[in-house]
Amino acid sequence: METSIRLTAEQLGEMQFRYIKLGPNGRWSSRAIEEQVLFLGHKEVPHDLALGRDKQQIATLLQGIGRSAGKANDFAREIVDFYTLGADTVWITFHNGRLWWAIADSEVIWVGEDEERGARKRRLLFPWRDTDLKGEVLIQQQLSSLLTKVSAYRQTICKIANPDYLRCKLAGSDDPDTMRAEQALQALTDAAATLIAKLHEDDFETLVGILLERQGYHRVSRLGGTQKDVDMIVEQPFTGETLFVQVKSSTNQAGFDDYISRFDATPGTSRMILAVHTANGKLTTANRPDVTLWDRTTLAKAAVNAGLAQWLIARAG
Fold first, then answer.
1. ∠ CA(277), CA(290), CA(244), 5° rounding?
2. Which three-class secondary structure state does DSSP give residue 100?
3. What pLDDT, in 10s, does the model give residues 138-149?
4. Residue 31: which H helix or E strand, with range?
5. What Cα–Cα distance (Å) separates residue 203 from each residue in 122, 134, 138?
6. The CATH number of 9-173 is which of 2.60.40, 3.10.590, 3.30.70, 3.30.2120?
7. 36-63: pLDDT as tens digits
8. What are phi and psi of 259, to 5 degrees?
9. Any idea where the domains of the chain sit in the sequence?
10. What is the value of pTM for the model shown?
């Protein structure tokens, strides 16, 4: 057996990838991970024949025991891949909601018939792990479906359709397309923050009202109505939560503290939100868990997520 190896992100760039289903419906996965091996079935194909790596001979045998020509050729390919792919191949599988990956030693060992494992196995040079090279857990639901759809593959071994994406995930680096999208999103958010600061007071109040409505809150008092101590009272009909909302184009800490005092004096409200796009100095909530500050950055992120970029352009332009 070859010695175990350490792997770098640069070395991943030279690797090829294969998905392997470890047993019917993945039933051998726990044992394979525990024993640090790859398993493959096809017990009807003798080890000596598989060592010959002759796809045609293997396919002929499989057809002789009733496999269709298509299935026989697919199974023969899987067996030959298992016997020939070396230490330049990263094997991946999915188990318990995570992506696992490993690199196998080239030697194939015959282990015979056992329903709890495959008929043959390969020990590992780089052990099964469910984290990237930076230690972040590879959660299946957080990965692109372009990759995770391979777990529905009906047979055992296949190539990965998007190896560059997988390579980035295993290295713990960002996919270039994702990076470009994140940069564009950040640029849009920064632009939205600039536009929010240019809004007329009435438009700013309208924006805050829209954002609250998108979160399921309904107004109990009119926006900018006659209640002198509060700009808006809103209620969440499903939870019954009632919010005290102040909307100010600008304020300072003394003003913020005054609004908190008004909130404390207002019966029937459980939380307070101060929405402000221009702060005169640093604003703090005084460690009040029932007081939330919506500053320009928070509002910009919320507006972009709510699809209000064009609305902002029209109002601030």
1. 60
2. strand
3. 999 999 999 999
4. helix 29-35
5. 66, 46, 43
6. 3.10.590
7. 999 999 999 999 999 999 999 999 999 9
8. -65, -35
9. 9-173, 180-316
10. 0.66
